[in-house]
Amino acid sequence: xxxxxxxxxxxxxxxxxxxxxxxxxxxxxxxxxxxxxxxxxxxxxxxxxxxxxxxxxxxxxxxxxxxxxxxxxxxxxxxxxxxxxxxxxxxxxxxxxxxxxxxxxxxxxxxx
Length: 112
Prior knowledge:
The chain is of the alpha+beta class. The protein has helices at residues 5-14, 44-58, 104-111, and strands spanning 22-28, 37-38, 41-42, 61-64, 68-71, 74-82, 85-88, 93-100. The chain is built from 3 helices and 8 strands; from the N terminus they run αβββαβββββα. The longest helix is centred in the middle third of the chain and has 15 residues, at 44-58.
């Protein structure tokens, strides 16, 4: 099932947002906290446990593929989601093991 923005908004209005089974994230290299980068390596374990997981545990988040979002000053992109849009729950398997470079879209989000 491929959701466009209007059908995604319709789902939210109806309160019928499906639960995500899996969420794959990419973190923006330029916004990774310095303490989570060392000797040319990124500490994805700490990014997940100290930034991403607490963010999703605070409240229900609704995401879809290709969304950009930030947690404090760290930017993420949704690489894939199963289904392609839905809410993140305690049952959602969340992965982050790659990075991307700052994009124009993230710059727009950053200044909103």
